Amino acid sequence: MAQTSRSGARRPAGRLGRRFTRRHRRLRVGLSQLLFVVAGLVLGIFVPRITVPPTVSSGRIVDLLFTAGVTVISLITVIYSLLFVVVQWVGSAFSLRLSLFRDDPIVWRAFAYSIGIFVFCFTAAFAIGNRKTVSVVVPVAALLLVLAALVFMRTLQTRALVSMLLAPNLDAITERGREILDGLYLQPAAGDSAAGAPLPPLRSTVTWPDRPAVLQQLHLGPLVTGARAAGSVVVLRQAVGVTLLSGMPIADVHGGDLGQQAILRAIVPGRERTFDQDPLLAFRLLADIALRALSPAINDPATAVQVLDCLEGLLAPLAARNATAGQVADADGVIRVMLNLPHWDDFARSCLDDIIAASADSPMVLLRTRDLLTRLGRTAPSSGQKVLASRLRWVEDTLARNHPVVWADAASARDGQPAPDPPRTPGRLT
Predict the structure, then answer these.
(1) CA-based, 20 to 30 A from 222: which of 158, 170, 275, 428?
(2) How far is CA 323 from the centre of its chain?
(3) How many CB atoms lie within 10 A of CB 89?
(4) Full strand arrangement of the beta sheet holding 267-270
(5) Structure confidence by residue, pLDDT tens digits, 123-165
(6) Is it the case that residue 242 has pLDDT exceeding 60?
(7) How would you classify the pairing of strands 232-236 and 249-255?
(8) 210, 269 Cβ separation under 8 angstroms
(9) Can you name the residues that pair with 269 across neighbouring β-strands?
(10) Which residues, including other chains, have CB under 8 Å from residue 11's CB and lie 6 or more apart?
(11) Could you give the CA distance from residue 175 to residue 181 in angstroms, rounded to a whole number?
(12) CB of 311 within 8 A of CB of 286?
């Protein structure tokens, strides 16, 4: 039986090429460290050869270089100490999945720069050798490099402090979530679903052959090219961010015979979810922060309200987008890959259900959730109206059952009627 796509939005491979391309984060980290080491080695060899006057005694400069090289190693200790403290704090205060500071480029750039200074100082000291004098350029260069290291350290400390605060973390998560949503859900929502062209006959289903792993990224460029050469259409059955289990189906191949390895090479597994291509991660992190705030050990409903503000800021603009699975076409405009992207109601369920369940004893959070659901109900696509209506009834029933006075006040304010006076206790002055 012919199958239809979940969306009529065709996207050329180049449009999503930058988004669905393998990110070699570890490779970039290693290359940056190698680059700074090579730069320090080259500068350490050629800077002492400069003979521009004035000159100073080389003995003192060699001692200065060795001292600076050994001292700058302490920067590495500080970097790792900050990294450990911040990661531990963020994991206990916000979410174990929150790794914004750990993945911040300033961390590994500061580390690489410190290694580069160390290499420069020791290389320059050995390059001076038995010279009696050396140009003042050498100590000036060392001083400038150390001052730049202090700037790095100041920036790193500031980022570490900011990473331990609530509002900057919420802003950062929301911004990262908005960035990926803007990159994936590009088209206005013309309707709930649009029937696409029938797919070719199903040829094979590719399953995950390895141990459990998180689907971190998709590498679509080679997959689109291979599907075009084979005359295939690949329908991905798993979304970025899910845990792949052995034997789990990951893609259906329609039409031409596209080998299993072509599909598996497009899958980038890992140990944890990342922001690179995962549209639900920001919603999951925000929900985690709200749940931790609503736990009996912390009992901080105001934080959960702040989280709901961020969630509404993400959900409201998404209602006007085409929140269905995208179709990636080749250079000829022929659909070759169909992505499995979450729908609008998937976003709403993933972030609201747990918060509603955990906020049964918090009228502040329930009222804010009620306002969120009411406003979203005016703009959400029809596919999400049922989800929002059921959650709104859930919230209102919880308010009426657990907090009848608060619910009576809220209902009166909604209807434009004054709230009734509370009953008076006989024998007491009011």
Answers:
(1) 275
(2) 19
(3) 14
(4) 243-244, 213-218, 267-270
(5) 999 999 778 889 999 999 999 998 998 888 888 889 888 999 9
(6) yes
(7) antiparallel
(8) yes
(9) 215
(10) 186, 326, 327, 328, 329
(11) 10
(12) yes
Q: Could you report how far apart the first and last alpha carbons of the chain are, in Å? A: 75
SS (H, E, C) the chain: CCCCCCCCCEEEHHHHHCCCCCCCHHHHHHHHHHHHHHHHHHHHHHHHHCCCCCEEEHHHHHHHHHHHHHHHHHHHHHHHHHHHHHHHHHHHHCCCCCCCCCCCHHHHHHHHHHHHHHHHHHHHHHHHCCCCEEECHHHHHHHHHHHHHHHHHHHHHHHHHHHCCHHHHHHHHHHHHHHHHHHHCCCECCCCCCCCCCCCCEEEEEECCCCCEEEEEECHHHHHHHHHHHCEEEEECCCCCCEECCCCEEEEEEECCCCHHHHHHCEEEECCCCCCCCCCHHHHHHHHHHHHHHCCCCCCHHHHHHHHHHHHHHHHHHCCECCCCCEEECCCCCEEEECCCCCHHHHHHHHHHHHHHHCCCCHHHHHHHHHHHHHHHHHCCHHHHHHHHHHHHHHHHHHHHHCHHHHHHHHHHHHCCCCCCCCCCCCCCC
User: Cα(161)–Cα(139) distance, rounded to whole angstroms?
Assistant: 33
Q: What does the CA dihedral 327, 330, 333, 335 come to, rounded to 10 degrees?
A: -40
Give yes or no for residue 330 having a pLDDT over 50. yes
Q: Alpha-carbon distance 186 to 11, whole Å? A: 10
299: left (phi over 0), alpha (psi -120 to 50) or beta: left
- Predicted confidence (pLDDT) per residue in 254-296, tens digit: 998 898 999 999 999 999 999 988 999 999 999 999 999 999 9
Taking the alpha carbons of 79, 81, 82, 86 in that order, is the dihedral positive or negative?
positive
Q: What CA–CA distance (Å, rounded) separates 96 from 103?
A: 14
- The rounded distance, in Å, linking the Cα atoms of 114 and 108 is 10
Domain ranges, ordered by start, for the chain: 25-164, 281-327+343-415
How many degrees, rounded to 5, is the angle at CA 51 between CA 46 and CA 54?
130
Q: Hey, how many other C-beta atoms are within 10 angstroms of the C-beta on 152?
A: 20
Please, are residues 350 and 288 in contact by the beta-carbon 8 Å criterion?
no
**pLDDT 10s digits, 363-403:** 999 999 999 999 998 888 887 888 999 999 999 999 999 99
What pTM, to 2 d.p., does this model score?
Answer: 0.84
> What's the rounded Cα separation, in Å, for the pair 64 and 48?
14
Question: What pLDDT shows up at residue 244?
Answer: 96
Residue 5 has φ and ψ, to the nearest 5°, of -80, 165
